[in-house]
Known about the structure:
3 strands, alpha+beta, about 40% helix
Amino acid sequence: MSTIQAAAAGPATPSKPQPKKKSKQRLTHSAFAALRGVSGRTIDRWVAAKILPPPEYVNGRKYWDPDVEPRQDAAAAAAE
């Protein structure tokens, strides 16, 4: 189909604007520990005990998803 034929066929349906993907904010290791009210070493212990998933590493630094919650079943088992 040529350009003239496409223009004669009518206007193209306008496409919906795609929402921009919002990059997820990450917290540094110390900020994540402060958010949880514990020390950074406690966060490391929770990772070793599999209470928390491992952090993401960017340029050798630990970054955490602020929405991650400690597993309650593993925390109760570790306290015993």
